[in-house]
Amino acid sequence: MNINKALDKEYEKLSIKEILNLPVSAIQGITEEDAELLKKALKIKTIKDLGKNKYFRWAKALVDLADAEE
In this structure, are residues 52 and 45 in contact, taking their beta carbons and an 8 Å threshold? Predict the structure, then answer.
């Protein structure tokens, strides 16, 4: 996976640990306005917060389970 395709160009040289502490708006396609909505609705401020959010994790698990369901 090329992580550079997921981030705004200015963040491509950072380590994964540094990336996790960036605001979610550092992800390509997430605007400052989107980031503010995530912060207000779900208290998500950083990329780490987004990845650890229980609702997103539950949704991902359900998608993965659906792929395995017959």
Answer: no
pTM given for the model: 0.85
Domain extents in the chain? 3-68
Report the C-alpha gap between 47 and 57 in whole angstroms: 13
Q: What are phi and psi of 25, to 5 degrees?
A: -70, -10
Helix (H, G, I), strand (E, B) or coil at 7: strand
User: Which residue type sits at 53?
Assistant: N
6 with 26: CB under 8 angstroms? no
Place of tokens 């389970």: 65
Written as tens digits, the pLDDT of the chain (70 aa) is 677 788 998 998 899 999 999 999 999 999 999 999 999 999 999 999 999 999 999 999 999 999 888 7
